[in-house]
From TrEMBL:
Keyword Signal: yes
InterPro entries linked to this entry: ARM-like, ARM-type_fold, Hsp70_NEF-Inhibitors, Nucleotide_exch_fac_Fes1
Keywords: Signal
Molecular functions per Gene Ontology: adenyl-nucleotide exchange factor activity
Protein name: Nucleotide exchange factor Fes1 domain-containing protein
Signal sequence, start to end: 1-24
Organism domain of life: Eukaryota
Signal as UniProt keyword: yes
Amino acid sequence: MMGRSASGLALWLLLLASAGAVMAQADRVNKSSSGGLFWSTAKEEGDLMRKSEAQESTVGVDDNADLDGGFSSLDGMLQWAIGRWCFLFFFQLLELMEKLKMPSDAQLMQIAIADLNNSSLPMEDHHRALQELLILVEPIDNANDLNKLGGLTVVIRELDNPDPEIRKISAWILGKASQNNPVVQEQVLELGALQKLMKMVNSSFVEEATKALYAVSALIRKNLAAQELFYAKAGDLMLQDILSNPSIDIRLRRKTVFLVGDLAECQLESTHKAELPFFSNRHFLKSVVDLIASSDLDLQEKALVAVKNLLQLRTTEALVFKDYCDLDGALERMRKQLQQLMEDEYKRDYVMDLESLRREVGLVFHQKLGKVTHVPT
């Protein structure tokens, strides 16, 4: 809508500028005496006629009248020509504006959905339609319109497509549309997409698995009903399997430990709800703590955040973190690692932030143990 208004305004300005330029040029020519050309005004023409009555009666025909073609003056003829030109140009501009009119986002979404429903189109067109939807659903209003247009059903159907690229983009669309959007979260859950996405997390196609986990995270984030369904479908075991398997792609492990930290934070905020047993499972806790030893700084940061949140839960036991998970040893090894990385000036700021977070985790841990109130350096 805004683009069309801007285009219309630009065309109107072009029209006014063009007309103004023509009229200004005409005025300059009328007032110029260079080159021997002089266009008379109506007043001047009358004066000339009174001064040359004898000559005019002899000739019988006014040369200027012939030149003006029935107009009272050349100026009048010029004004008429400009007016006619502007009138024609105006309608040409209207026709051009109609041709340049862009469809709305809703219309573009309808076109993409129709293409996905058209089985006669080649796979490339289905890819293009999904890519267009991926962009279009980013604004929250468009995401809310997706189900009204029948798009959610179509996209969820594509999760079963034999083409892994189609499945990947479809999961990505669902994740983007659901992110921080309770309306779409509820719609996607009602259509039964969560269980399909959880199965896709185990895909051997890494890109599909990461986008599926992204969609799962977007669906259950800050949504207690969705989290209950996630746990009912053994989501906690899915998370533990990913975290405890070092051969799994690191991108998937980053997303998983980030989700763990987010779920623990949500549990902390829901003080009226009983804490879930898997949060205090020693094997699960160890799989999270072990990530602190990773050489990937991003993964380490997300693991520290998750551990800090888990430590603050009422049902997690400090001695499990100490004896079974060896959290003290993990934090000490990380301290030595960060000391070495501090020498790299390009990483120094980030490393200092990580060291601050490491210290904070250590403080929370020792406070839970009840032994010390500061972190040894």
